[in-house]
Amino acid sequence: MRPSSGTYIRGFHREMMTGPMSLLLRSGTLRTEDVHEGREVLEVEIAGIASGRASAKDMEAMEESIDALKAPQISALEFAEADVAFHRRLAEAAGNRLFSVLANALNDVMIEVGLLAYEHNESSVERALPYHSWILENVRKRGVEGARRAMEEHLRSSLAQMRLFAAQQRLPTAIPANADVAGLPERHSYDRGNPSMQFTVIGAGNMGCIDGGNLARIGEQVALLDVWEDHVRRIQNKGLEIDGLHGTFVAPVTAISDAAAAPKSDIVLICANTYSPRDGANAARFALKDSGFVLTLQNGPGNVEILTEAPGKDRVMAGLSFHSADLRGPGEITPANRGRT
Fold first, then answer.
1. Are 269 and 199 spatial neighbours (Cβ–Cβ below 8 Å)?
2. DSSP 8-state class, residue 175
3. DSSP string computed for 280-325
4. pTM above 0.70, yes or no
5. How far is CA 26 from CA 51, 156, 177, in A?
6. What is the radius of gyration, based on Cα positions, of the chain?
């Protein structure tokens, strides 16, 4: 306002919210988990509303964001921008200006977290793509509940990855104040000394949780795939709690219930029930990298033969394990016997 010039009212835009939230994150006053919780409240509903209101143009814009994530040799910045662009276009498709402003502000703040996480784990793209495609598929079908569920699982997976990244880097759940976001390389470097392997464990029961939890404990990337929704949700929200012979700790694993959302993995570990080998084989098709291997620890005859139908016999291994454990409840496991695998 200037003397004798009248009063000017500046239009409201998301930058008015993004700046203060970013400062709060850097100071530690606001945690990234707080932002994620806000996204869960808002974006799940946005996905449902957008599935009923999105135009053909909106869907085309979302498809363009997905295509951007598929680009070869995508940089950290390109990934973060394409990821946020999808969520922005989904919010716009809901047709509510307030939703767009709030959701865009929350997602803009998370760009910094996405940049840091991507630089330390290039599989972030492989994790985001299936969820974005799943959301868009339900928007196209006008599937309100399907779109809400897809977004809910996407955000839970994202939160689990953020917690895993923070644990591996020994970072707080707020963005460190000295984080050199601007200085990240333009292209991701694969020269990281001794990078961890990506495992997908199919069947997160007694054995799947023990094997997956201990792999995560020593620094490997682990995703648990299971159809027990309460179990998956508990692990997504609080991690996998293991106590007993191996000590008490929370394993930084991710958990999913949809095989299509599994990360492309170096090793797919089959720990599903022996009476469902074909279900395990079908799930492995989604998770296995072109250069990956399948390892089954199932009991009973015929499992290996069924598993070799897809990747071929040269990429399937059979093993034995003498561990045992008790699954106390969703997300809680107690080892009962220490054995060799």
1. yes
2. P
3. HHHHHHHHEEEEEEEEE---STTHHHHHTTTT-GGGEEE-----EE
4. no
5. 35, 22, 5
6. 22
Strand 265-270 relative to strand 288-296: parallel, antiparallel, unpaired?
parallel
Q: Give 273's contacts (C-beta < 8 A, 6+ positions apart).
A: 203, 205, 298
Q: Which amino acid is at 268?
A: V
Q: Distance between CA 109 and CA 163 in Å, rounded? A: 17
Element (H, E) at 250: strand 249-251
Q: Which residues of 279-293 are buried (b: 16+ CB within 10 A; e: fewer)?
A: bbbebbebbbbeebb
Cβ neighbours of residue 247 closer than 8 Å, sequence gap 6 or more: none
Nearest residue to 208 (alpha-carbon basis) of 233, 166, 242, 184? 242
Q: Output 296 or 273, whichever has higher pLDDT.
A: 296
- Amino acid occupying residue 243: D
Distances (CA, A) of 181 to 124, 164, 171, 202, 285: 17, 19, 15, 35, 36
**CA distances (Å), origin 240, targets 209, 210, 253, 317:** 8, 10, 7, 26
Rounded CA separation 279/1 (Å): 68
- pLDDT tens-place string over residues 107-143: 777 666 666 555 555 555 556 777 898 899 999 999 9
CA distance 224 to 201: 5
According to DSSP, residue 134 is labeled H
Residue 39 · residue 155 · CB < 8 Å: yes
